[in-house]
Amino acid sequence: MEKKILNALKERISRQNWESWFLDFSVKKIENKHVVFEVGNIFIKDRLEQKFGKIISKVVRDFLGKDSSFEITYKEIKNDNLGSTKTDGPLIKKKPLLITPLNPKYTFQNLIVGEFNRFAYNVFLEASKNPGYYNPIFLYSGVGLGKTHLAQALGNYILETDPDMKVAYLTSEEFMNEMIISIKKGTTEEFREKYRKKADILIIDDIQFLIGKKAAQIELFHTFNAIHEAGKQIIICSDRTPQELKDFHSRMISRFQMGLIVKISKPSKYDLIRIGKKILELKETEISEEILEYLVQIYDTPRVLHGAILKLIAYKNLFGEMSLSIAQTLISNYKKETKSFEEQLITELAKMFDCSSEEILSSKRTKNISFARKIGMYFANKYLNLSTREIGKIFNKSHSSVVQNLKQIENSLKDGNLIIKNYLRELDKRIKRFAEGK
Ligand code: ADP
Ligand code: MG
């Protein structure tokens, strides 16, 4: 019977899905029309129930009758036998620790400190000098108030002062995705070792993403324990307090609470102006104090202020001018508009090159589309003053490929390429029209 049920299931499930999810799926027992299946871990269990629950239920009923039922159990992971077969041995780096690259602009120097974040700043600075002293650190605030910046500042500081330290920074979403991939590939041991054993400092950003993701929570819990026990630094960033992480297991919440909990509040208008000035300084451009005063009446977090300032800078670069009244018009359009300059740029490129926006943002490499992309990147850099990193984000491309593309266009322009020149001129015209709300 066991075999029959499994075979019937296999027939109804695509090969790819079978190989991804059912390889260690087995019937543990059948008792009174109730089938107990077993899988390797809770993550697969969750997934099978969500994605294939209906099919499984149907197959079970086909064999055992309408009133039959099933459940899926999993083999409990014991934390202490993970990797125990491997000796710790000499620390020869087999593979470098994969680290999400830190944004080099997110440093302590570039962070404005005021009443709103002074405590958090001091804790992070102290932790940079003495990793593991406050452990864990749980940082929370509303969105856009500087958590990621502060957490990465610690990472950047440590990498600079002690390049041998292995700093792992990643969002909880990235953590989960990597976990899923490792399960599919059968490399969970490596995945675990990477974070549990090789990281000296683990920063998990946006923990709230794991709400409702039980399996990833459990995996993170074990990782957390392993790192914490080894006395290595853990930092968790969240958009809410530990208690507000609804559905996280209480033992996990109490882990978060056993260290230091720090909060960033909303900056005052005065501090926002200082932050605005910092943003301008980093962009190597200026906007009058009067305009900044106006902006901080409307935008009350560093993130939205940052967005508004970028918009003004883009305009200033296109037209070579900026004034309070222009800023006011732009901002009022900005609030109404659903599109940003960057989005409009993609739209215009698609029109000019007779393709879709999706194609421009895809990884397609047809000549026409690659060319459109390069022109767009160059325009974003030279006309809208966006950094290569920002451009990478907009176009879904790696930093190095952006740099390479910019170089190519630069060289062609130097050689007097008129086609490119004309495309840029045309784009300039179109984006200006958009900026003026026409
Ligand atoms: P969060 O992670 O809390 O949502 P971010 O760290 O992404 O916020 O900050 C949003 C933007 O605002 C970033 O560009 C960041 O550099 C900037 N920013 C935030 N706080 C400050 C600050 N105190 N000084 C300077 N820039 C800041
Ligand atoms: Mg963030």
TrEMBL record:
Record Gene3D superfamilies: 1.10.1750.10, 3.30.300.180, P-loop containing nucleotide triphosphate hydrolases
Keywords from the named record: ATP-binding, Cytoplasm, DNA replication, DNA-binding, Lipid-binding, Nucleotide-binding
Record-annotated Chromosomal replication initiator DnaA C-terminal domain positions: 341-409
Keyword DNA-binding: yes
Protein residues bound to ATP: G144, G146, K147, T148
Compartment annotation: Cytoplasm
Example of a GO MF term: DNA replication origin binding
Boundaries of every AAA+ ATPase domain copy: 133-265
SMART domains cross-referenced by the UniProt entry: AAA, Bac_DnaA_C
Residue segments, region Domain IV, binds dsDNA: 317-438
Region entry Domain I, interacts with DnaA modulators, spans: 1-81
The record's note on its domains: Domain I is involved in oligomerization and binding regulators, domain II is flexibile and of varying length in different bacteria, domain III forms the AAA+ region, while domain IV binds dsDNA.
Family, similarity comment: Belongs to the DnaA family.
HAMAP family associated with the record: DnaA_bact
Protein name per UniProt: Chromosomal replication initiator protein DnaA
Annotated gene: dnaA
